[in-house]
Design brief:
The chain is α/β, with parallel strands linked by helices and 310 residues long. The chain has 2 domains: 105 residues, Transcription Regulator spoIIAA (2-Layer Sandwich), CATH 3.30.750.80; 177 residues, Rossmann fold, CATH 3.40.50.150. Helix content is 32%, strand content 26%. The protein contains 9 helices and 16 strands. A hairpin with a 3-residue loop joins strand 12 and strand 13. The longest helix is centred in the first third of the chain and has 15 residues. The protein is globular and about 55 Å long. InterPro entries: SAM-dep_methyl-trfase, SAM-dependent_MTases_sf. GO terms for molecular function: methyltransferase activity.
Amino acid sequence: MLASELPVFFEEVTQQLTSIPNEIRRLFHGRGKHWPGLEQITCDWVQGQMIVNVFKSVDDEFLQTLKVGLDALAQSELWQKRSGSCIAIQHRYQEGAPTEVLYGELDSRPVVIESGCQYQLDIGRNQNFGLFLDMRLGRNWVQQRAQGKKVLNLFAYTCGFSVAAIQAGACGVMNVDMSRSSLNKGRDNHRLNQHDLSKVSFLGHDIFRSWGKIKKGGPYDMVIIDPPSFQKGSFALTKDYKKILKRLPELLNEDGVVMACVNSPTVSPDFLIESMQLEAPALEFQYRLDNPPEFIDVDESASLKVMIFQ
């Protein structure tokens, strides 16, 4: 990355910080390759805390220029106006992804707001802090359509889709993820929003060994599939995704909808459309959801793909 391009970074961060609502947001997304020389840096606003992620090793000039600019931002009128409390850099290229606090004190477990829902984050201990910000419009889509619906949330992680669905008035959600610790965080997210947990179930099992239990909870009006691109020993996207699609007809109500997601830059939107035609031809492709504008990408086929089928 190029230290000479950091003024562009700060110009964009300042512009976004001036205009965003009082919610969690990505301020700068270099990984979409829209900003030459800044491809390995992102910046997130965590409602008072600014978390800058650097994904590859940089030279001393880049790091020092970045720190000087962040220090200047912390002294600015805009920072005071936004009630800024902390600035930190997470060095994602180093083992353990250590977090370096430059200003203030880091609240590693903040509660944030997105579209009226509250989420508990965990900053600095893991590479992902508990909410994928590029999926904001996907969660909004669920929130706009889930009222009165029975929802199946596969690869639920910390249950962001589930929170959005119950907030909208879904009659029930089944969350499935092999990580029970993630599901426990999802349960906490529902409690934060004072949701009726009798409407929410949490299945901490390998999806491919749990079809009987999953089917028993159906049929579903909405199925959400948001898998990792690769999970060692449990999920390989291009091979295993099709196994899930093949099961959809027996899981869905007649008018059921499917949100199928892929976040691998090497997998195109056509993969999902063609795989669905092959494995579950009764489900027709409807449209692809837009990604949040702050996640600008020079190659739309490489960015997050959220596809709706019915």
